[in-house]
Structure formats: C-alpha cells, structure tokens
Amino acid sequence: MIFSKFGNKFAKHSGISLLMKDLNEGLRTPGAIMLGGGNPAHIPEMDNYFQSLLTEMNQNGLLTDTLCNYDGPQGKDTMLQALAETLKAQLGWDISAKNIALSNGSQSAFFYLFNLLAGHFDDGIKRKVLFPLAPEYVGYADAGLDDDLFVANKPQIELLPDGQFKYHVDFNTLQVTDDIGVICVSRPTNPTGNVITDEEVHHLDKLAKQHNIPLLIDNAYGIPFPGIIFTEATPFWNENVILCMSLSKLGLPGTRCGIIIANEEIIEAVSNMNGIISLAPGGVGPALALEMLRRNDLMSLSKDVIGPFYKQRVEQVIDIIRRYLPEDKCLIHKPEGAIFLWLWFKDLPISSAELYRRLKQRGVLMVPGHFFFPGIEQDWPHAHQCMRMNYAPEPEIIEKGIVILAEEIELAFKKAN
Ligand SMILES: Cc1ncc(COP(=O)(O)O)c(C=O)c1O
C-alpha cells in the first residue's frame, strides 16, 4: 500500500510507539520486570481516593452526565473556570478560564503546539523547536509534521558526591537563532529527573522574550500538581509561557487529560485544533479534577501524598541500586523529580541499545538513552551510555531487575577484557 508523505512519517515505527508497545506488553506479561515506560505508581491512598470519588460521582449522576455529553472544544467549562480561580488564588497568576484549554493527554498538546509554532511559515522561513537541554522527553521526537523540526543543546555536566551528577543548561553554547519558533523544556525532566533551577527558567524566559517566541514548559510531573518534585522550584507562568500539565502522573493516565495554560491567542488556536481533530477533549478526567478542586484535594493530595510517596520510593531504589552497582560502574542523575532514574554507564564497553536488547531478553525492560536526544547528532558518545528506568514499581520487582542489570554490566566488562 502506498501512503501519503504524512502516512510515511506517522505510520512508521517511532521511538515512542516502540516504547508504548513495550509498556503495554511489559505491564501485561506475567513475570516481566517493567522498568520501561512512564506508567505512574499505584499509590494505594490515591487508588482508594479515586475509587470512592468515582462511586460518589456515579451515585450523584455526575459521571453519567459527563459520559453522555460532549464538552466544547476548549474542554469542560466548569473545570477551566475552577482551575483558573485556584491557580490565580494560590499562585497569583493573572489568568482566567480563557487562558486554559484541555487536550486528550498532554502528548497530543505537544503535537498541536510544535506544529503551530514551528515548521514552514508563510514568510518562507522553516522554524524549529529548540530544546535548551538534552536529554529531553522521547515523546517529542516524532511529533513534527516536518522532518528535522528539533534542535537541542548539549548540557553542562556537574559531577556531584555519592556517584551522582546533574545537567545544567549550557548558556555559553545555547544559540537562539532566527529560525527558532519556540523554546521547550520539561521541568521536572523526563528522562533524567532533573529540575532546571529558577535561575535557568528566568534566563530562558528572558531569551524567549528577547526573540519574540514563547517558552513552553512541560510540567507533567511538577507543581502544584502532581507534585513529583523533591527540590526547591517555583511554579512559573506569564503571558509568554505555555505551561503544559497533565492528570496522568496524578495516577490517572487512562483519562488522557492534558492541560494547556497560555495566552488567549494560543488557547484559541488549541481549542480550534481540538475541534478539528477530536471535536472535544474527553470529559471524565476534567470532571474528576473539578471535584478534586472543589474539595481542595488536587493540590493537597499532590503535596501530602503523591510527592512524599515518590520521594521515599526513589531513595529506596537508589539504595537498592547501590547494593549491586558501585559508583565507578554507574553514575545516577540527581533525582529532583519525575518518576525516572537516569543511569550513566560511563565506561561500559557496549552501547545502551545493546544493553537494552540483552536486558529485554532476560525479561527486564528499561529504555536506552539514545532515544532521548532529539535534535542532537547521534554520534555523541554520551547519548549511548545512559539508560532510563522507571522507579515507580514495587521495590521487590525493581531489585530483581537491578540484579539482572548488574549481572549484564559485569558480563559486558568481562567480555571486553
Ligand atoms: C515529560 C512528559 N511530558 C508529557 C507526557 C505525556 O503525558 P500524557 O499525554 O499522559 O499527559 C509525558 C508522559 O510520560 C512526559 O513524561
């Protein structure tokens, strides 16, 4: 069958579809040790909360009301209103419901936004998305209608005590050329767990304003919800910022609810795209979020339950890793947020892609690092020395995976000597 150019680009295997396939099979194959995809943890307190909230919404008719009606293309009005009021009251942002649109997962919002702000323009310029700090989220990599939509900047690497390191935006090498249409950064970052500092955010904001382009901040893991952040970081928004949020890492990935907070022109554009592509975003996630906002639970559960759960889990998992993998074999990016650990095998004689294959053969799924460098030339050795693991599964499962990882690392070194 002959596909269109669009078909050839979007129907082929991409990094993200391979990952989601692994995730689906890994989650459902008995015995598989799934440290791959980005599924959030099942936090018992949150699962119970959702169950009782859904039961209540089923009894009082709110669930059928949302299931049996379309919302408008901008998303559920009552939720937009309630969220705008809460953000205004709690964070002091000057926003109204006109500054928020919903999407079917934030993943689809990135597709809209990248292709709205980058690609071929009427002035003849082909504009690009700039990632100021690679590694960056694999889900961005194939989201451009045009090839070569992304450029990225290599990070500065700061070595820290205890076998840890941290990436920083390298402002000495970062160039915002005239063909950049938007600067995009995830904060906290998937895959590394990095949280770019307030100072870095302000610097990027200034650069974006100087070049008359928006700064897109992907806040899928951040504050005020779901609150998976373990370091000092101030929530940031202004009229030049597009802040993308999601209900997924709150524990509701199946609702496919993304939230875009931006100036009215961007929100109107997103809303119109929603109309064409999906008529309206799904209503179940927003209906749940609305009830959580009404009960003042959205931010408080994030702060008091979700954040502390992941903080404790990541500390436990680092202890497990260190029991089997010493610092000279494996460096770990300082875990400041998100649900991943980013492992750097500096001197490993095999590539992370080969390590991925060997681990997969033994039933352990992790993600090889090279997927996370969209916009960076593939011959940068560092891109092939890292692996991402999801630390959300139960520690007993993680330990089994780490034992196998340590064996494979040992074997690779032995074979090379
Ligand atoms: C950084 C980041 N942004 C966006 C997404 C997309 O999430 P969703 O489409 O479920 O909102 C993910 C999912 O893992 C992510 O890690």
Automatic annotation (TrEMBL):
GO molecular function: pyridoxal phosphate binding; valine-pyruvate transaminase activity
Matches recorded under InterPro entries: Aminotransferase_I/II_large, Class-I_PLP-dep_aminotransf, PyrdxlP-dep_Trfase, PyrdxlP-dep_Trfase_major
Pfam families: Aminotran_1_2
GO cellular component: cytosol
Top class in the EC scheme: transferase
EC number: 2.6.1.66
Any one GO biological process: alpha-amino acid metabolic process
CDD domains linked to this entry: AAT_like
Keyword Transferase among UniProt keywords: yes
Keywords: Aminotransferase, Pyridoxal phosphate, Pyruvate, Transferase
Cofactors named for this entry: pyridoxal 5'-phosphate
Span of domain Aminotransferase class I/classII large: 61-373
Name under which the protein is recorded: Valine--pyruvate aminotransferase
